[in-house]
Amino acid sequence: MSKHDRSGWHVARVASVLLAGAACLSACAAPARAAEEVKFVVVANWENGADRGDAPGEYQNWVEREHLDEKVPVRGAPDVVRRNKAGLYGVVLRHGVTDLAAFVIDPRFDFHHTYWLFTGISGVNPNAASVGSVAWARWVVDGDALREIDDRTIPKDWPYGLYAIGASRPDTLPANPNHYGSVTDVAELSKAYTLNQGLARWAYQISRTVVLADDPEVAARRKAWVGFPAAQRPPSILMGETLGAERYWHGAPRNLWAENWVKLWTKGQGLFVMTNEESQTYQREMRTLASLGFVDANRIMLLRSGSNFSMPPPGGDVTQSMGDEGPGQAVAFDNNERAGAPVVAEILDHWGRYRDHIPSAPF
Which InterPro entries is this protein grouped with (predicted)? Predict the structure, then answer.
């Protein structure tokens, strides 16, 4: 489960507004010039050590395998942007949303037709998939803003003490939007950020036959998951949702909450597969940038790979299982790039087809 998020909702908002204002001032003051049209950006959350040549993190396999050899200096986002000769850009968010916003508002670049692939490792729901598996998301669900009562003091008929602000109990939507003051429509309280589902299905179709890596120790650990057939399978590629929450939660009761929270905010259509600490923040940021006219939100994709399970195996100790990513990390780094690479290649190789027409696959 990726655990390197450096920014919350208020930081994201302030960064976007201030940087957007700076971009406007820069554009007004500088002579008009043609901006470079950016075709594709792969976004990683963090990296261990260097971007290449040592043990990989979320970014290094993309840098090395996609030959992102050229560093691109960006004011406000030092040493985070690379590109290759085919037109693929890579970004590692060393400073969180500040890096993302600084890159997008740089007047040297035009992002109006850019495709985005947000990547990373996650905790994986053992009811849905196994460690090393990779999921294309249709929704990113926000698990941050909610009400919480200590589980030891909740009413006897409650499954847990987490529930939506404005609701009267868990697993129900708020009835009165005025709990948020200026909000007048319950729909505005939604915690599900909808991605372009036709594009997500298309990406899945492109990548679904990719051969994924496995690991002997990861395979051996799968045997402990008796009664969880999805957790015992080798790594696979599927479609399923990502839940982002700054709290690094773990365990069966919270896994049940995550499954139900995703269903609640996607009207029963979403499947909880992956959980991490930053997806919700970056999707909020991208929607702010889209509302300001910098990017096209319909071109955003999200691909997450499982590095560890979101709860311990049957009979396992929750405190030992918590954060025990072990060999799963390397497999998750590897498979994330394996699954995403053919989608990147398809768009770049046929840019004339996809520049003005976003691909889509039917239900």
Answer: Pur_nuclsid_perm
- Give the model's pLDDT for residue 7: 43
In this structure, are strands 134-136 and 162-163 parallel, antiparallel, or unpaired? unpaired
Pairing mode of beta strands 147-148, 162-163? antiparallel
Query: Measured between alpha carbons, how far is 253 from 249 in angstroms, rounded to an integer?
Result: 10
Rounded CA-CA distance 334/194 in Å is 27
CA distance 354 to 363: 20
Pick among 3.40.309.10, 3.30.70.580, 3.40.50.1580, 3.40.50.2300: CATH of 9-145+191-354:
3.40.50.1580
Where are the domains positioned within the chain?
A: 9-145+191-354
Tokens of residue 317, six digits: 């100790």
Question: How many whole angstroms separate alpha carbon 269 and alpha carbon 363?
Answer: 12
Long-range contacts, stretch 264-269, CB < 8 angstroms, 24+ apart: 264/164, 264/171, 264/172, 264/173, 265/139, 265/141, 265/142, 265/190, 265/191, 265/192, 266/138, 266/139, 266/141, 266/192, 266/241, 269/138
Rounded to a whole number of angstroms, the CA Rg of the chain reads 20
Helix or strand (DSSP H, E) at 244: strand 241-244
Q: Give the 3-state secondary structure of residue 60.
A: helix
Looking at residue 9, its pLDDT comes to 42
Task: For the chain of 363 residues, list the mean pLDDT of each consecutive stretch of 10.
Answer: 45 47 45 84 93 90 97 95 97 95 97 98 98 98 94 97 92 76 64 95 98 97 97 98 96 98 96 96 95 97 98 95 91 98 98 98 88
State how far the Cα of 168 lies from the Cα of 280, in Å rounded to an integer.
24
Give CA angle at 347 (342, 349), nearest 5°. Answer: 90
- In this structure, are residues 274 and 118 in contact, taking their beta carbons and an 8 Å threshold? no
Considering the entire predicted model, what is its pTM?
0.90
Instruction: Give the Cα separation of 111 and 39 in Å (integer).
Output: 8
Please report, to the nearest 10 degrees, the dihedral formed by the alpha carbons of residues 193, 195, 197, 199 taken in order: -170
Q: Which pLDDT does position 62 carry in this prediction?
A: 97
